[in-house]
UniProtKB/TrEMBL annotation:
Pfam family, one: Aminotran_3
Listed name of the protein: 4-aminobutyrate aminotransferase and related aminotransferase
Gene3D superfamilies: Aspartate Aminotransferase, domain 1, Type I PLP-dependent aspartate aminotransferase-like (Major domain)
GO MF, one example: pyridoxal phosphate binding
Protein family per UniProt: Belongs to the class-III pyridoxal-phosphate-dependent aminotransferase family.
Transmembrane spans: none
The organism's taxonomic lineage, starting at the top: Bacteria, Bacillati, Actinomycetota, Actinomycetes, Bifidobacteriales
PROSITE patterns cross-referenced by the UniProt entry: AA_TRANSFER_CLASS_3
Species per Swiss-Prot/TrEMBL record: Bifidobacterium boum
Record keywords: Aminotransferase, Pyridoxal phosphate, Transferase
UniProt keyword Oxidoreductase, yes or no: no
GO cellular component: cytosol
PANTHER family: AMINOTRANSFERASE, AMINOTRANSFERASE CLASS-III
EC number: 2.6.1.77
Amino acid sequence: MGHDCSADETIWDDAYALDRAHVFHSWHAQRDLHPTEVVTGHGVWLNYADGREMLDFTSQQVNVNIGYQHPAVVEGIKKQAELLATIGPDYANLARGRAASLVARRAPEGFDKVFFTNAGADANENAMRAARLVTGRDKILSSYRCYHGNTGAAISATGDWRRKPNDYARGHVHFFTPYLYRSEFFATTQEEECERALTHLEHVIEFEGPDTIAAVLLESIPGTAGIIIPPKDYFKGVREITRKYGILMITDEVMAGFGRTGFWFALDDYDYTPDIITFAKGCNSGYVPAGGVIMSKPVAAYFDDVVFPGGLTYSGHPLAMGAIVATQEAMEREHIVDNAHDVGRDVLGPGLEALVEHHPTIGEVRGKGVFWAVELVADRATKEPLDDASMQRIVAEADKLNLVLGVHNNRIHVTPPCVISAEEAAEGVARLDKALTAAGC
Ligand SMILES: Cc1ncc(COP(=O)(O)O)c(C=O)c1O
């Protein structure tokens, strides 16, 4: 069997040609894709094959929190590879135990157990499974403005366009979460938005039937949906409502966790404790794929004598675990979370806010840490989103200035690695300023 790949001999050293011949990419029609070849990177910088050194304001899928080629993480993976490159999930293994301990200690008191997954989607998948089993209920409530991953239940829990062609799982209900700039509740202050969003949630719960609902699943800060910072008291309110009806609360920290917001977990900036926390991305910055579910004591205890009907060949894969241990230790040792906090407060926040004056297309700037959205509009009064062509022009102008920008609909998401220095952040904002001007925005 097999077939003749001899044609590949002519392109064997050509990453771009091989990609176009054989690689099928996510979330795209394939024909007109032109992926950029990246050779290596260091810190917040990426080296393109054309020789350019690019300042990365994306952290890829908002996951490379520790930056590229962090020597301690590379070394941690190498050491684990030499010791034991693979072992099944049923065994005890030092890297796995340490990784679980290091992750769990960032969660609130009483969260001691971690179920490791391959990524964020299957973390949410298993969190929903656990919530359904623990409560004996079926429905999961989640926001229209969210992304929870690209697997069966996770994509049905997702609110954005990606759910629509993939929506085959049952038992999912959506509701609106706070977003003052485009309020669904005709609110004019964060307090009003918070109060009305909570009333709306409680109405949805009452109309759906509280005893049919297993969990409310929420991103601590909706990321892909627009880095929308929830009002201070929102989660406390959700917690009160969910407690009242015996509904579990799952907090998705996949994108916002591990330093992104200037806190270990984004939920640290809010006054509440969920029942289950999911994580992935920043736990080891994607050096080896990993994610997981952190369970509060009562949730974990439910499965003490009841079989958890879920598992993965690579749950707690030693290379991923070695990468988590090295990442967590380096983040602590190098004060990387504090750095993200300070760079956000001192440079990115004020720097991006200052752009509002010179660029009439900027409707709102919001964020914290190294997690910022610049929302662009055709008209500040009507808030009509800026068109796609203009957004693509901004990305193209940024590229000419060696700045990698992430764009989602009418928003620029400024999400550099947490290790970015104040000088690099200021340089990136200056390049963004120039790119907006060059794009006529
Ligand atoms: C909040 C959130 N949850 C879950 C996911 C899914 O994670 P993964 O792509 O690792 O499966 C993502 C991915 O971007 C995310 O942002």
